[in-house]
Amino acid sequence: MSTKTPRKADILRPIQQTSTKYYALAAVAGLAFALFLAGWMYQLAEGLIVTGLSDWGSGGGVTWGVYIGAFIWWVGIAHGGIILSAAVRLLGMERYMPVARLAELLTIAGLSAAGFYIVVHLGRPDRMVTSIIGHYHITIHASPLVWDVTVITAYFVLTATYLALTLRYDITRLRDDLPDHFDPLYRVMTIGYTEREDEIVQRMVWWLALAIIIMAPLLLHGGVIPWLFALLPTYPTWFGGVQGPQFLTIALTSAISGVILLSYAFRWAYDWDHIITDDVFRGLLLWLGFFCLLFLWLQLQQNITGLFKAPVDVTHAAEARLFSPVYITSMSLVFLTLTYIFAQTIRPSLFSKKRAVVAGVAVLTATIMEKVLFVVEGFLHPTFDIYAATPGEYFPSLIEFSSITGTIGMVTLFFLIVSKVFPVVELHAIEHLQEAQEREEPATHD
To answer: CA 158 to CA 150: how far, in whole Å?
Structure first.
């Protein structure tokens, strides 16, 4: 364990220092995002026909594919991220305080990527105005998709408020060391600030955290988003009560994996081994293992009920899913990750931060594969088409594949930019680590 004392200067390092690696990563992320934007411009010019999507009907094919699968994936990462941060504050999980803000920022970035997918998948951005905003008062009563957009927007506002409240404390106390060219932004964010508000803000943040914990299973990735699929009985791969808890476990596994990757990247880049300690990674891995186990258990429930004496249409869809190479690969990645986490728990010498990163990448790869397959299989095997001689086919286009790397690049750029404006580790976390170290030192001397 590192004996270095965490200081304010540590969390200011990303703001004050810019290395060649920073510019290289920004260039790669920017290129990935630019390539996707170029593909999207081509799609706008030629129409959605340039993708692997097609009109559903007697000719087969699907109208939703990678775009909606990746949309669910990003929303899950975002929801899981803020649940992790809220749990840290609500349950007093002090070990994870150094990564709480990274989880909050991951929520903002993930929701932004998900919202971008909605615009891309509409085909024409102006439909946001002509089809959704203009008819919102009608569609909100009857469209699960509009419930989805509404809840995501509300969640974005809630998370942004949550983040802004905690930033006021940091900006005020670190203002002399922050860049002067962002002074107008800092002034706006700290309007009316006094030290008397700190206790009030802490209570407000606690209540916001409680609201988030309650909303997640009821309205967010355990409610409205799975309802978009689970309430459609003519699509046997989608229909059913298991979708809510299954979506929630996938969200949490994805978010924890994302936080592991972010934590490792910032620790490696800025020598934060005394801030984001090995114990943080060990704890995150244990939580990842727990939710991977739930994920696999819920998949087992879905497969058993779909294959054992199920209705013909459900059996047909379940068999198609079970024998898909995409599904087999996805479940194998989650199972191997769970096996590693179990093994390193029994034999701690197997733990390493790089292996934790590999586990995170494996789970993120598995979850996006599962979500895309989930969306596609629902369209390919509807109830009223079970006797078709040739089921529809779908294979993502290069533009759709580039959307995944493009939005990852977009999120990476978000973190690179934010890390130059605000501390990505809370000042409260540093103060807590200093107090903990001070308590340990007298005990060591005794």
So the answer is: 12
